[in-house]
Amino acid sequence: MNAEPDKTSPGDFPTPDRLLHTGSEGEYTPEDVVLASGRDVNPKNLAWAERRMAEKGRACMDELLP
Prior knowledge:
Elements: H1 30-36, H2 43-56, H3 59-64
Helix pairs in contact: 1-2
């Protein structure tokens, strides 16, 4: 058994800035809205996300993400 930690583990290195994004600068789906809200992806929550997207547009993601 090796006492050295596995250096290939994703938790060992910070995520590069180019992979991080927040807000509504790109395209997003109802699944993205559900996940950003901390809810489980299921038909009820997807319907909620679709209504929220229709009512608020891009602001629906801005309200959920920092």
